[in-house]
């Protein structure tokens, strides 16, 4: 299926304009509750939603001894979409491999909901070109999408400690590569850059073979290029406008998408969507829980506003409302909104009010 809208509706389902969408909200840890409060205000302006709030991550560990309970996972499965704040923090750090970790909640959600495709759009706002560590003329007109495979690779392979050493196994199947490649090709405007390490890794050689076959058999009108991951890391900084869709395996995508986020000037600006073959998607900002500023009112809510827009677009079939949210963020930035991570002084509450003013 070459048509993007038809493919999206077939892969991820079309909610068919339900009267009241059901969204599970998971504030999580650190600044998560603060930005989730802001996100709920934005949602209240653009539609009528049933919002159910649950614990996840460190907050769930404190309450239940596990980062994700079966009850919460079931609630997420029954929703139209899931909106997550952030998980993690120093309170739950441990070198004990048996200790529960907040990140297990996120991995459990991805696995339990069958979310294999992570979409991270990177489009620096024209008003923030000076906030990027790169020269404005280098990042101007950058508009790329990182498509990251989410349920395979080294993060989900066999791991352990043995005979004084440790190991983590990277494994991929043909089917896993095929389905993420189709997401990338169906999302591309003109070109897909498939990132691997095929000069070293057998998993990357399989990756390149399968992506090449899917391209030639199903998407021949989309340009395909292969790029080694170390070169891709360099080109993202040297020539970000070169990219349209960047297709990566799990760990490479984790690293490259955070690098690409800095093109916008701050991790606090980057949203993401995690989608599966059916059922609800998971939408979250890319930044972490930022425990150092939790409770100070300094958290930038713009990334979760972007995640709300992705949820409206990809999860709830509400394109017009998604565009309204994105436009409101751009207009607030054009009017001078700057949070501390962008070199300004606007608090979370002030940033929220600035965006709401354009909704």
General description of the model:
The protein has 359 residues and is an alpha/beta fold. It folds into two domains: 209 residues, Isopropylmalate Dehydrogenase, CATH 3.40.718.10; 132 residues, Isopropylmalate Dehydrogenase (3-Layer(aba) Sandwich), CATH 3.40.718.10. It is built from 13 helices and twelve strands. A ten-stranded mixed sheet has the order 2-1-3-12-11-4-5-10-8-9, with helices on both faces. The longest helix is centred in the middle third of the chain and has 17 residues. 48% of the residues are buried.
Brief synopsis:
With 359 residues, this protein is an alpha/beta fold. 40% of the residues lie in helices and 19% in strands. Residues 1-18 have low confidence and may be disordered.
Radius of gyration: 20 Å
Topology as a string of helices (H) and strands (E): HEHEHHEHEHEEEHEHEHEHEEHHH
CATH homologous group name of the largest domain: Isopropylmalate Dehydrogenase
Kindly report the spatial arrangement of strands forming the biggest sheet: 2-1-3-12-11-4-5-10-8-9
Global shape: globular
Count of runs of 4 or more consecutive helical residues: 13
CATH level 1 name of the largest domain = Alpha Beta
CATH architecture title of the largest domain: 3-Layer(aba) Sandwich
Number of domains: 2
SSE topology:
Layout: H1 4-12, E1 21-28, H2 32-46, E2 49-53, H3 58-64, H4 70-77, E3 81-86, H5 103-112, E4 115-122, H6 136-139, E5 144-149, E6 159-162, E7 165-168, H7 174-187, E8 191-196, H8 202-218, E9 223-228, H9 229-238, E10 245-248, H10 250-261, E11 271-276, E12 281-285, H11 302-315, H12 319-334, H13 348-356
Parallel strand pairs: 1-2, 1-3, 3-12, 5-10, 8-9, 8-10
Antiparallel strand pairs: 4-5, 4-11, 6-7, 11-12
Helix pairs in contact: 2-13, 7-8, 9-10, 11-12, 12-13
């Amino acid at each position: 299926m070459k048509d993007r809208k038809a493919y999206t509706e077939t892969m991820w389902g079309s909610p068919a304009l339900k009267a009241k969408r059901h969204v599970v909200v998971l504030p999580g840890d650190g600044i998560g509750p603060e930005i989730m409060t802001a996100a709920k205000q934005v949602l209240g302006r653009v539609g009528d939603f049933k919002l159910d709030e649950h614990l996840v991550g460190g907050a769930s560990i404190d309450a239940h001894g596990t980062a994700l309970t079966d009850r919460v996972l079931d609630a997420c499965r029954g929703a139209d979409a899931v909106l997550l704040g952030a998980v993690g923090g120093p309170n739950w750090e441990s070198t004990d491999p048996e200790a529960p970790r907040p990140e297990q909640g996120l991995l459990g959600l991805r696995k339990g909901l069958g979310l294999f495709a992570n979409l991270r759009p990177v489009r620096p706002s024209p008003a923030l070109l000076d906030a990027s560590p790169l020269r404005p003329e280098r990042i101007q007109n950058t508009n790329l999408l990182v498509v990251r495979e989410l349920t395979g690779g080294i993060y989900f392979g066999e791991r352990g400690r043995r005979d004084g050493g440790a190991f983590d196994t990277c494994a991929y199947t043909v089917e896993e590569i095929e389905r993420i490649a189709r997401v990338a090709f169906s999302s591309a405007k003109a070109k897909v850059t498939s990132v691997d390490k095929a000069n070293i890794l057998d998993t990357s050689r399989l990756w390149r073979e399968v992506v090449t076959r899917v391209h030639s058999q199903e998407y021949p009108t989309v340009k395909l290029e292969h790029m080694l991951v170390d070169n891709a890391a360099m080109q993202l900084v040297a020539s970000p406008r070169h990219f349209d869709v960047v297709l990566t395996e799990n760990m490479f995508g984790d690293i490259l998408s955070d690098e690409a986020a800095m093109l916008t000037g701050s991790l606090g600006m980057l949203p993401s969507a995690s989608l599966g073959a059916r059922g609800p998607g998971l939408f979250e900002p890319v930044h972490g829980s930022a425990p150092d500023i939790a409770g100070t009112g300094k958290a930038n809510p713009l990334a979760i506003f972007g995640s709300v827009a992705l949820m409206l677009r990809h999860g709830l079939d509400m394109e017009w409302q998604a565009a309204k949210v994105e436009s409101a963020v751009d207009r607030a930035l054009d009017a001078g909104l700057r949070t501390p991570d962008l070199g300004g002084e606007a608090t979370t509450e002030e940033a929220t009010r600035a965006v709401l003013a354009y909704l």
